[in-house]
Write a structure and sequence with these properties.
- There is one protein chain.
- The protein is α/β, with parallel strands linked by helices.
- The chain has 14 helices and 14 strands.
- Strand 3, helix 5 and strand 4 form a beta-alpha-beta unit.
- The chain is globular, with a radius of gyration of 21 Å.
Length: 418
């Protein structure tokens, strides 16, 4: 089940990351009352010997440009060096390699990391996780990823994945239904193997754990312009919660049918469903619908303020929200630094990275809206590399923008699958 779930989460997230643009709430200027120095906090410079930390990026390819994550990662490293004492007092020097979005390029980058003897490799998101992990794990170099859908990574003893795509796609919507007191659910999912397969496998046990029985998983073929017959048949069963799971085109068609037929109960979307242009064709737009996501863009969120201030200070001229991938570069580096806070002295080695992360106490997940992560191999039993169980929820306005603060969702108990 995990393998299939990983594929769908990764494929949908990858498509969103490549196309997502800055939202109206995402500006490049700090949103605190003071200047950047007030947001960044007091100085605590790293004065030890520098430590070279590997960072592999998918960079810019023919169809996707992820290169904007690098200035964000560099900003996080510089911020950590000046305000957090680096890692155990050692200044961070990022050893960046662009894999050009190819398996061969990823292998070359992994070999570079081995040659450079880095103690750990960081990765925000990649389409070539297998060759990345294979080559660095052979050299006993751990991988810290912000997000991953790759089976070899999710099950690896050498990998640590900060965010939880399974919660965002499956357990988070079930948790929202549980909080709303739902007893009967429906999931309209795009009928491609990478989506309908995991929905059929994971939604029934997860929703059952939330007390929602039954949940009807309704696959609908991609390209279906009018979903009225399928939606009308399902609404006849009076579901208390409905999730729509697919890309923008699919979700827009499903939402048109749902709203036209008068569905007014809890309606949950993943981020890949939302597009401001599509809002105009949905009766009432996205108003009142729930979004489940892994990271906050709330301007009032402390990590969002920190991110904007650090970018303005250390990567001036770079757009903090060039696309959906950009903030992940910052979050990946900051996540490593927070996870390594238990190492206060000594050298930063592959062994000390692995032992420190495995023994770490819970610390704030970057952009997690109050959620924490802990890489102790016990957060999700079916995927031991994942370090967090939570996700975030927000209520959307008509244009699909989150209203107010993001709400943390602790879906850990729902992920206990027999």
């Amino acid at each position: 089940m995990v393998v299939i779930a990983g594929v769908v989460v990764g494929s949908l997230v990858a498509s969103a990351c490549s196309s997502s643009k800055s939202s109206s709430s995402a500006s490049s200027t700090p949103t605190s009352g003071g200047g950047a120095s007030d947001v960044l906090g007091p100085s605590k410079a790293a004065t030890g010997t520098p430590v070279k930390i590997g960072y592999i990026t998918d960079g810019k390819g023919q169809s996707i440009d992820d290169s904007s994550e690098v200035p964000a990662a560099q900003a996080a490293a510089k911020y950590a060096n000046e305000h957090l004492g680096g890692i155990a007092g050692h200044p961070i020097e990022l050893d960046v390699c662009d894999d050009h979005q190819t398996p061969a390029g990823t292998t070359d980058c992994a070999n570079q990391m081995v040659t450079d003897k880095v103690p750990v490799v960081l990765n925000n998101v990649t389409g070539n996780g297998d060759p990345l992990l294979k080559n660095i794990a052979a050299a006993n170099i751990p991988l810290v990823a912000y997000a991953s859908s790759v089976q070899s990574i999710l099950f690896s003893k050498d990998a640590y994945v900060l965010t939880n795509g399974i919660t965002a796609a499956f357990a988070g919507p079930a948790k929202i239904g549980q909080l709303a007191g739902a007893k009967h659910g429906a999931v309209f999912v795009i009928d491609v193997p990478a989506a309908s397969g995991p929905a059929k496998a994971l939604d029934p046990p997860i929703f059952k754990n939330a007390g929602i029985v039954p949940v009807d998983v309704v696959p609908i073929a991609p390209g279906t312009a009018d979903m009225t017959p399928q939606v009308q048949a399902e609404l006849g069963k009076s579901p208390d919660i409905v999730q729509v799971f697919g890309d923008v085109t699919f979700c827009t068609s499903a939402l048109k049918a749902l709203k036209t037929l008068g569905y007014s109960k809890t309606l949950v979307l993943i981020a890949q469903c939302i597009d401001a242009n599509s809002a105009k064709s949905i009766p009432g737009g996205y108003a009142g619908m729930k979004l489940v996501t892994s990271y906050s863009t709330d301007p009032a969120d402390p990590d969002v303020k920190l991110y904007k201030a650090a970018m303005a200070q250390y990567s001036p001229g770079a757009n903090p929200y060039a696309n959906g991938v950009t903030p992940g570069g910052f979050a990946t580096v900051l996540g490593l630094v927070r996870g390594m806070s238990g190492l206060t002295t000594g050298d930063v080695t592959s062994d000390s990275v692995a032992s420190t992360l495995t023994a770490m106490a819970p610390v704030p997940l970057p952009f997690g809206g109050g959620a924490t992560f802990q890489c102790n191999r016990q957060q999700v039993t079916i995927t031991p590399a994942i370090c967090s169980t939570g996700a975030l929820a927000a209520t959307l306005d008509q244009n699909g923008q989150p209203q107010g603060a993001f709400e943390p969702l602790d879906a850990g108990p729902l992920l206990k699958l027999g």
